[in-house]
Structures are given as structure tokens and as C-alpha cells.
């Protein structure tokens, strides 16, 4: 991807964000550790890039392997080493938040689509085969190196925050049986520096009782709230809850800054 022709946000902190055409790319200046269940390069990885591909229903015919499609597109853009995500929601509507707690800074970048939303513990009839696909894909960067266990704990906290933000919106599509909690294709990418600073050791914990965990939760909660509000606004009034469409605070992906004083892919069934 030729980022030279795109406008990168200069205020992105730990990573540079470029949104161009059907790509949203977050690049890090130094190697990072990454943990996710992304369709491209899942699990524990080392790298310096996370990339989203925006797809259309027509891209995913019955004879198309979504993972292979994503891998091919990434390689064609020179992004083969990136952790790769895929969504049909508009990448231009990405949202960001930055939170600092107790010396730890966490930055979150998220894209939100709830067209195939589900409520945990049930499956909505037709959701996987519906026409309004989307997903909640988020990158959560912690500025401190984490142990393997702490990265797993970070996934847990980020998941709880994302789910809370979605539940707060009260979105109830037909057949859900209650407010939805996510979609069938959501993905979270936890990122932290690959190397510890001189004289320091990796953080062993990232739970709710830690400053790192607090910052993760606050950043993911804020960014996801913005993304959900924006998605609902683009759908018009929320007929399921009777609420007016909320104001969208992040059409351009502008980062929301908060300090300590304040605050995938479509799988083969989704065609």
C-alpha cells in the first residue's frame, strides 16, 4: 500500500493510521507483539502492522475462501506481514480513543458494524445469512510489554469493555430476544512492545485491578461506544428501542483523548 498518497493522522500516538480506499492500516515504528484470532496471522505474532480490508458481499461468492481472499489482497498491497482483518462496515468511520492510567497509556482503534449482530447464548434466525454484514474489529495497544498471560488477560478485559459498550446501546434487531452483545465475526487484536525498556520487566498482569487493565477497559469502552453510536446513526432511528439516532462523534476517526483525570472477518458462512 502506498501510504505516501494517503493522509496519515499525525496525532495517533504509538501508531500511524492511514485510511485509503478499502484499506485501514495501523503501522508501528518498532516491532510489536500481537495476539488475536484474526483471519490472517492469528495467535501470538511479532510484527509492526495491522490492516483492515473493506469487502462487499459480491467479493465473497459461494466459491470464495475468505481467508485466502484476504491473504491475496494483503500480499498484493505489500501487507503480507500484517495481522489482517476483514469487514463490510465503512472503514472511513473508524473511531479511536486514548487513555492513560497510572503510567500506562492504551490506544484503541475500532471499526463497528452490527448488521449480523447476535446476543450471546442464542443465534438470531438468518443473522449469518443476512444482507447487512458488519463486525466489530478492534486494535488495542498497550505501551508496556506484557507477558503471554497478561496479553490473554488483556483480551478478556477488552472483550468485556466491547460487550458493555454494545449492551449499553440497547440495540434489539428482530429475533435477538434482547439487546445484542456483539456479532458472529468480531475480532480483537492486543498489541504491546516486543522489547522491554532497559531495566524493566514485562507486566505480569492486566486485569481489572491493575492500571493497565483499567486503561484497556476505558479506551475500548470509549472507542466502541463512539463506533456503535455512529453505526446506529447511519441506520437512522433505532426502531428496536424507539430511541433517536445518537450523534456520531467520530466520522473522521478523530481520536478522543482522556487522562487519568477524565476517560473479521466474514467467515465462509457469511456470504
Write a concise synopsis of the structure shown.
This protein is 21% helix and 28% strand. With 271 residues, it is an alpha+beta fold.
pLDDT averaged residue by residue = 84
The biggest beta sheet reads: 10 strands, mixed
Structural class: alpha+beta
Shape: globular
Q: Could you spell the SSE succession in H and E letters?
A: EEEEHEEEEEHEEHE
> What is the number of domains?
1
Which residue ranges are poorly predicted, with pLDDT under 50 across at least 5 consecutive positions? 3-12, 242-249, 251-271
Q: Span from first to last CA?
A: 26 Å
Work out the helix count.
3
CATH architecture: 4-Layer Sandwich
CATH topology: L-amino peptidase D-ALA esterase/amidase
According to DSSP, the number of beta strands is 12
Radius of gyration: 18 Å
CATH first level: Alpha Beta
* Helix content, binned percent: 10-25%
Query: Beta-strand level of the residues, as a percent range?
Result: 25-35%
